[in-house]
Amino acid sequence: MYISRIAKDGREQPTSQHLLESAEYARNIGKKFMASEICRTVALFHDMGKLTSEFVEYLKDSYMNEKLGNKSNRKGSVVHSTQGAKCLYESQSSDSDQIVALAREISAICIANHHGSLMDGISPCGDTPFRERLVREKDNLHYAEVIKAAEKENISISNMSDTLKRCRTELIEFIEICKENKLNAAFMLHLLTKSVFSCLVDSDRYNAYCFEINKMPEMERQMPPWGDYAQRLEKKVSTFKADSDLNIIRQDISENCLFAADRPKGIYRLDVPTGGGKTLSSLRFALSHAKKHRAEHVIYVIPYLSVLEQTADDIKKALQYKPTDKFILEHHSNLIVSDDPEEAQAYRLLTDRWDSPIIITTMVQFLESIYSNKSSNLRKFHNMANAVFIFDEVQSLPLKCTYLFNEAINYLYYCAGCSILLCTATQPPLNGTEKPILSKLPSLVPDMSEGFCKLKRTHIKKDSMIPGGYSADTFQQFVMNKYQEEGNCLVILNTKKDAARIYNSLESYINKANMQEQIELIHLSTTMCP
User: Fold this and answer.
1) Minimal CA–CA distance to 295: which of 453, 123, 446, 413?
2) CA 344-348-349 angle, 5° bins
3) Which CATH homologous superfamily contains domain 226-454?
4) Residue 161 dihedral angles phi and psi, to the nearest 5°
5) Cα–Cα distances in Å, from 471 out to 462, 464, 476, 512, 524?
6) For helices 305-318 and 226-237, what crossing angle results, to 10°?
7) Using CA atoms, how far apart are residues 229 and 318, in angstroms rounded to an integer?
8) For residues 389-398, b (16+ Cβ closer than 10 Å) or e, as one string?
9) Angle of helix 160-180 relative to helix 36-45, nearest 10 degrees?
10) Residue 510: what are its φ and ψ, rounded to 5°?
11) What's residue 61's pLDDT?
12) CB 380 within 8 Å of CB 374
């Protein structure tokens, strides 16, 4: 019997079982971006290289060494991810169809790299590293044995032509969607390839994990109880009183967001002034919108770590989240992971997959999960499909990332069935760039001009501005003058470096001036640790 792995308790998983179960799981999650047959195919062929006696011998040798406490020197010595890629890549269609050739290449490149990182089909300098890999590893593949065993194990090779035709149909439909919506089809195909790769990596690792813990893999995802989460939020919202101009404005915004949840899937704006309560208003929209459209996730993306933790805390309080609850996942670098090995492993699995109903994360994690080539980052990409996204403070998106962000949003909406909400007090013109978000970006709330005036908290005094800006010395004097006028002064600067520089300058000035009154000078920075 050809086996795929041996569990710690000695159970052996037949390779055919692993391939067939992975293929069924991949087919189900591939439906979300209209590539179920391509996903099924790559999962069915991904571990064909394990259908060799050499791999079975290698597995059993590794298992015995581990059991005896010996270190195996054969780890990774038996190639098993190339055979399935070679089988698909070199399969001949009845005609020279470019779409079939594209289906073969997408499938093969995902299979060959599912244990590492996606490699280039063709490099910027014109090399073909993927094809060279298939040729280079030809001698140690035991290819004839693999093909013979695949047929015997019902991993069908003979009807490859029919399989590729079904893949071709999916690609044609995908390209037509790109053309209809004036998307960059080549760029969208690159994101589709990463989605297929994500499905393969997750189906492979999830199936292996389930076998290790002796659990039947769930082939279809259960829909989160959005109605329950929405009711929890409504209970919190009902405690807010419209007893001031500010609270009346907040209530109007919140009610408009709830009403807008019945809209079709789309890319929307929420232009709300600072202090307008957009965190819970946007969440109110997202939960009800997710319920209406049977979305699988609500993903809240925030640019700043300093804001993220407070926002996550507000959301958890609003949803009466308890420590025993599991429906909210925070994924960011500030989160302290438990020292307990089992809890730490469970958290790693959640962050690898983004399988939780509500995910709160950073813009960095969002972009890395799409534009990385690493399997560890891309594994969660497929769980971005059929989701409701909230992007808070979207104006803070780095300028150099604008085109990548816009193309990702276009893909998620047009090709992956998502709804997108862009929240900010100062909405950037993302649909007016050279590579724009292809949407008119309708707003969830009516014109907020009056609301912006009522919620305005600052006033810029133009007489305090000087041509060319302040030097450190002139700014230091400006701060001291304001302190002497008011008795206190808060200074906020753009960078940590400038904050430290001005603090040192003021400290030096106060020490040299030998002032009679004692001035308390405080420097606050995120580089400081308690």
Assistant:
1) 413
2) 120
3) P-loop containing nucleotide triphosphate hydrolases (3.40.50.300)
4) -60, -45
5) 17, 14, 8, 19, 21
6) 90
7) 10
8) bbbbbbeebe
9) 140
10) -65, -40
11) 87
12) no
In one-letter notation, the amino acid at residue 148 is K
346 class by beta-carbon count within 10 Å (0-12 exposed, 13-18 middle, 19+ buried): middle
Domain positions in the chain = 3-212, 226-454, 462-513
Length of the chain: 530
Q: Is the pLDDT assigned to residue 212 strictly greater than 90?
A: yes
Tokens describing residue 341: 């090995």
Does the pLDDT at position 93 exceed 60? no
> Count of CB atoms within 10 A of residue 339's CB?
7
Q: How confident is the model at residue 421 (pLDDT cuts 50, 70, 90)?
A: very high
* 300/305 Cα distance (integer angstroms): 13
Distance CA 94, CA 417 (A): 34
What pLDDT does residue 139 have?
61
Q: Give the pLDDT of residue 487.
A: 86
The residue to which tokens 């020197």 are assigned: 73
Q: Which two tokens stand for residue 379?
A: 């594994």
CB count in 10 Å sphere of residue 92: 11
Can you tell me the distance from the alpha carbon of 54 to that of 63, in angstroms, rounded to the nearest whole number?
14
- Choose between 371 and 147: higher pLDDT: 371
pTM listed for this prediction: 0.87
Helical packing angle, 160-180 and 98-112, nearest 10°: 100
| pLDDT in the model for residue 389 | 98
